[in-house]
Write a structure and sequence with these properties.
Strand content: 15-25%
Shape: elongated
Bound molecules: 3'-deoxy-guanosine-5'-triphosphate, magnesium ion
Low-confidence stretches: 1-32
Radius of gyration: 34 Å
Number of helices: 12
Length: 337
């Protein structure tokens, strides 16, 4: 039995193959896992359909009236290929189609309605009800094989498209995540942090909550690179990120702002509480002994003022940080509220 890919490739060939009376090879070759639901109340017709479809390689599910067919269709997504008799006890063919198309995912089935040849406008009505195709009864076996084959190819195409969409969705998600993450430390990057800060500011203003920021800059980090090498410096930065992440509370958001600088958003936090947390981070970094080297950091803390924009808040946290540098490094300085 051919794979789906082979069947797709074969169906592509069909477009350029001139029409002949011979059954094309690809049309004969149907993967056995392809199922067809036959809903037909006439026993003889149902047996004939069962015989032919089985011979052509389809797995067949039978329903002998409309209610039974409907039950099968709503209980399972399979089979996706459906042959419905128009007139049956219980729900009639076109009504089944209408109901199915109205359900989530119900547009994915390929539905062929069997119409009596002498019924006026039957084909139009069947297609208008939402069927994909129709076959007049009594049916010609070659025509049936060909039309069911079209349905089968359409379902394969749908499947291939759905697989591609799935793949695309996963890639898009991954790209979006990468665009928001700092590659070295795995922390949110500057872009992501700015968005989160703007959002958090909106929430804080609406609810009258305080919100604070800690700005961190490693002390004399250039010397770490100069003595240990850049790749060791990278490892130290990863270690700093780990220490910061482990020290902050779960509602806080630590980010790598750039280089050896980190920003932490503290929702519902005053600058006094922020300073206590900053001091804990400072101490933990000092004691961490990352990659066999002792590093220290200077930290600035600022609390959002009423009506202040996020850039000014960042700037005030930075100014506090530079005061910490100026005053001798390895310390926390809090900006005036
Ligand atoms: P200060 O105490 O005044 O902040 O001194 P400093 O040496 O930390 O500051 P400076 O701005 O002079 O140097 C920052 C250093 O951080 C220089 C730069 O090479 C290093 N750095 C920035 N980004 C990275 C990185 O991704 N990996 C490594 N290994 N080093 C980085
Ligand atoms: Mg009937
Ligand atoms: Mg710096
Ligand atoms: Mg520095």
């Amino acid at each position: 039995m051919p794979s789906s890919a082979t069947a797709s490739a074969q169906s592509a060939i069909a477009v350029t193959t001139p029409i002949s009376n011979e059954i094309p090879k690809f049309a004969q070759a149907v993967p056995t896992q392809s199922g067809v639901l036959i809903a037909e109340d006439d026993l003889l017709s149902r047996q004939m359909l069962l015989f032919l479809l089985t011979e052509w390689g389809y797995g067949v599910t039978e329903a002998c009236n409309g209610d039974e067919a409907w039950q099968i269709l709503i209980e399972s997504r399979q089979p996706m290929l459906v042959i419905l008799d128009w007139m049956m006890p219980g729900i009639e063919g076109p009504e089944i189609v209408r109901r199915l198309r109205g359900r989530a995912g119900g547009h994915l089935h390929y539905i062929i309605i069997m119409t009596a040849a002498n019924m006026k406008d039957a084909a139009t009505l069947a297609l208008d009800a939402g069927a994909d195709d129709f076959i007049s009864k009594p049916f010609d076996r070659n025509e049936l094989r060909a039309r069911v084959g079209v349905g089968h190819r359409m379902l394969l195409l749908h499947q291939a498209l759905a697989d591609k969409m799935n793949c695309l969705q996963k890639v898009t998600k991954r790209i979006a995540r990468l665009a928001r993450t700092d590659e070295l430390t795995g922390l949110p990057n500057r872009r992501s942090f700015r968005e989160s800060l703007t959002q958090a500011k909106g929430v804080a203003c609406r609810h009258g909550h305080s919100i604070s920021l800690i700005s961190i800059d490693l002390d004399h980090f250039k010397a770490v690179n100069d003595t240990l090498g850049h790749s060791m410096g990278d490892q130290v930065l990863q270690g700093v990120a780990r220490v910061v992440r482990e020290t902050v509370r779960c509602q806080d958001l630590a980010s790598r702002w750039g280089g050896e600088e980190f920003l932490i958003l503290l929702p519902q936090t005053t600058s006094e509480a922020g300073a206590l947390l900053a001091e804990r981070i400072r101490r933990n970094l000092e004691e961490a002994n990352l990659s066999g080297t002792q590093i220290t950091a200077s930290l600035g803390v600022a609390q959002l003022r009423c009506g202040e924009d996020v850039n000014t808040l960042i700037q005030r946290a930075d100014e506090a940080l530079y005061r910490a540098k100026f005053e001798g490094r390895n310390r926390v300085v809090t900006a005036k509220p």
